[in-house]
Amino acid sequence: MLKNIDPRLNADVLHALHLMGHGETVALVDTNFPADGVSRHTSYGKLLRLDNLTSAEAMETVLSVLPLDSPIQPSVGRMQVMGSPNEMPEVQREVQAVLRESEGEDGSLYDIERFAFYEEAKKAYCVIATGERRFYGCFLLTKGVIAPL
User: Fold this and answer.
1) 136 an active-site residue?
2) Which one of 15, 22, 36, 110 is the catalytic residue?
3) Is 111 a catalytic residue?
């Protein structure tokens, strides 16, 4: 156990988030996402897991250590619902609330078409699978920087 580190973060996830550089992305995905196969295409090359967390809980946990990219550009994308791209399911609204609590007004989500999301996830630094069982609990986060002291 470490001080000031969310105990829901496991060592593998914490290590990968630490290794990421500015502008690299992490795919935070639900349990139905083809996470293992997609993760083999990423820079990290293997799947990371936060199995016992919902998408919102996992987002809160990751944001406890991961700075998001500049508020000048959107830094968290959501997978759009097929056939209803403007629909925002409850799982995404919950994540949006966590994001806004963490980032304030800059905490908005941008849209990524479902199949484009798969391709973008392959380009990510890593993929973290959650225990989220609801559909469309898939997000792409862009890492930002920590300002100098």
Assistant:
1) no
2) 22
3) no
The active-site residue, picked from 30, 44, 69, 136, is 69
Model confidence pLDDT, tens digit, residues 74-84: 899 999 999 99
Domain locations in the chain as residue ranges: 29-44+54-66+80-144
> Is 41 a residue of the active site?
no
Segment 54-106, tens digit of pLDDT: 999 999 999 999 999 976 678 999 999 999 999 999 999 999 999 999 887 66
Topology of the domain covering 29-44+54-66+80-144: RbsD-like fold (3.40.1650)
**Selected catalytic residue, list 30, 106, 110, 118:** 118
Residue 15 belongs to what H/E stretch?
helix 11-19
Distance of CA 87 to the CA centre of its chain: 19
25 CB-near residues (< 8 Å, 6+ apart): 120, 123, 124, 125, 140, 141, 142, 143
Percent of the chain with pLDDT over 70: 97
